[in-house]
Sequence to fold (186 residues):
Amino acid sequence: MKNTLIKIGSMLLVFGIFSCKDDKSPNYQYMPNMYESVGYETYEKVEWLPAGTEAMLPADHTIARGMVPYPFEDTPEGKELSRAAMSPLDSLQTEENLAVGKELYDINCAICHGAKGNGQGWLVQQEKILGVPSYSDQARNITVGSTYHVIYYGLNSMGSYANQLNHTERWQVSEYVMKLKEDLTK
Fold:
C-alpha cells in the first residue's frame, strides 16, 4: 500500500509539473539585455561612453596590418608602369613559390584560363564565358608585373582577386602564370 501511494504521489507530482508548462507563451527572461542587445553602428557616437573612448576612424595615411601598399593605379598608364615591376619573392625559393602558385592558380584561375593557360578552362568549354586569352598570345606582352596588376585590379570581364589572394599569393600566381606562358611558347 505504501509503495502504491508513493508511485501515485510521484506521478501526480510529475503530472503537476508538466501540466504547468505552456509551449505557447515564452519563458521568463531574467536578463533580457543579454538576449536582445542594442545594436550600435561601428563609428557612431554613443552617449553613455566617456569622451575619447568611442571607436574612431583610422588616422590618415595609415595602412592595415598585413596589407602592402600597391604603387600603381587602376589606369592604363598604371598597368603600363606595372609591366616593369619585378616579383619581390625570394628567388632562392622559386620551386616552392611555383608549387604554391600552381595550387592557387588551379583553385582560382584554371576554371576560366585553363590548367595550361591556353584560355580553354571549363567555363569556356561550356560556353559560359567567352574571350579568355591564352598566355601564349604575343600581342598581349604579359609580364609578371602586369599579371600582378590584373590580379590586383581585374581587367575587362575578370574581376579583382585582391580579396581572395594576399600579397605573397598574388606574386606566386603571377610567377606561375609566367611559367605557363613559357611552357606554351616552347
Remarks:
- Helices lie at 2-19, 32-35, 76-82, 94-108, 110-113, 122-125, 144-153, 167-184.
- The domain at 76-184 is CATH 1.10.760.10 (Cytochrome Bc1 Complex; Chain D, domain 2).
